[in-house]
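REQUEST
  id: r-88c1
  op: predict_structure
  target: DUF1385 domain-containing protein
  payload:
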Amino acid sequence: KLAGKFSKYKVVNILFYPGLLLQKITTKEPDNDQIEVAISSFKKVIEAEEALKAG
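RESPONSE
  id: r-88c1
  status: 200
  body:
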């Protein structure tokens, strides 16, 4: 909200630019390779939890 309220000032835009770039990166849809890694990692965690439960 603050950035929008003072967006007409160039200094404010410069100060908020890195945060906007970070937001753009973190809200980007994952590609297929990233999804594959996430699924594989999740499966490993499930296996590790099951091994701990089994003793």
